[in-house]
Amino acid sequence: MSETEVVNRQIERKQGNVYYYSTRTPTLSVNARDILIGATLDRFYEIAEGTECEFQSKEPDAPSSIRIGHMVMRVRLKSRRISTGGKFQGVEITGEMPVMLRGSAGSYIFNNRGLSRITREEERFLLPFREASDEEGKIRFRVGADHLAEFYYRVVPQLLQSPFVDFTDDCAEEAATLLPPEPVFSFRVDIDGGMIVCEAEVTYGQSPAKPLMVSRAGEYQDSVQEERVERTLQKYFRIFSPGRGKYETESTDGNLYRFLTEGLPELERYGQVLGSDAFQRTTVRPAPSFRVNVSIDSGLLDLSILSKDADPEELLELLESYRQKKRFHRLRSGDFVTLS
Asked: Where are the alpha helices (DSSP H) in the chain?
């Protein structure tokens, strides 16, 4: 079955035979099957955008008109408990994908409210839901007791924060009784002896902190999340001391700049990052502003570059780094300037 036939079946089940009429130009009438042709859909949207179009459907409660134009797209999800013999075993998540139509220049959402071209951000967000839905657009998956921590600690916060999701969770309180302690990560960063050093620890509840990936008999451990953090650290630190939670790499300008601009934000997504005085003295600054003066003296072009943020010699060094297409320049103070 082609994509067009799949979408047509979805529309027929949800809307019946559909007709649109644009009032902004001479009357345009196309049926649902015609709209699904890519270029025709794009042309129709461009012609009718911003108008209220007459809407006809076999459904008795359908509105008499719909809007053609961008609307905030939302996926609605809800949870229900899974139980065996009355005992809570996990949650089932259900939802429904909006009907998506594909044009040549973009993708569209169609429902009883209207027809809306979706943004790239919306399309990226919809991708995993599309992959999880069946051919009728139904979303349904289950999360067992063994995976509740991953779901509630990592997935649910993203769903609740997303502007594209309405998530109704009736199982949160009951699920909380089965959740183990959430891992809390902390990182201490220092520059010592020509090396960037990071010490990483994880804490569970009231238990004392321990290095990553060090198991303790009889104690709960979120190995999946600890492995994610360790993989992140290994992207920026070449040397690792097993069992000590200590990561090191050479304090070259390139390594330090990459850690400050990429590694630090990544680690802050997992936990708190504390830096020593030596580490905190190094920052990334915006490029200094400068003024260019041009004059002609005795037939010669005189070009002068001035800046209140850097002395002339250092400004020339910065411009040379820029000429060499470097990503950054390190000032004499030790700070970095991004040249992108």
From this structure: 3-15, 32-35, 38-48, 120-132, 148-150, 156-161, 172-176, 223-236, 253-258, 264-268, 277-280, 312-323
- For 78: left if phi > 0, alpha if psi spans -120 to 50, otherwise beta; the answer is beta
* Torsion sign, CA atoms 15, 70, 103, 25: positive
Contacts of residue 123, Cβ cutoff 8 Å, sequence gap at least 6: 107
Residue 255 has pLDDT above 80, yes or no: yes
Q: Give the Cα separation of 161 and 159 in Å (integer).
A: 6
Residues 69-72: contacts with CB within 8 Å, 24+ apart? 69/114, 69/116, 70/116, 70/117, 70/118, 70/119, 71/109, 71/113, 71/114, 71/116, 72/163, 72/164
Residue 316: what are its φ and ψ, rounded to 5°?
A: -65, -40
Structure tokens at 27: 């009357």
Dihedral sign for Cα atoms in the order 98, 100, 106, 112: negative
Identity of residue 299:
G
**Is beta strand 114-117 parallel, antiparallel or unpaired with respect to 107-111?**
antiparallel
Burial 141-169 (b: 16+ CB within 10 A, else e): eebeeeebbebbeeebeebeeeeebebeb
DSSP single-letter state for residue 219: -
Q: Cα dist. 195→4, 156, 198, 229 in Å?
A: 58, 38, 10, 21
Q: Extract the tokens encoding 17.
A: 């035979």
Closest CA to 180 of 137, 151, 160: 151
Rg (CA), the chain: 29
Tell me the pTM.
0.71
Q: What is the pLDDT of residues 169-214, one digit of tens each?
A: 999 999 998 899 999 999 999 999 899 999 999 999 999 999 998 8
| Strand partners of residue 60 | none
The SS3 call for residue 271 is strand
- Angstrom distances, CA of residue 88 to CA of 78, 84, 93: 17, 7, 15
Q: Which tokens hold the place of 136?
A: 């009728």
Number of helices followed by number of strands (H, E) in the chain: 12, 22
Q: Are the C-beta atoms of 94 and 140 separated by less than 8 Å?
A: yes
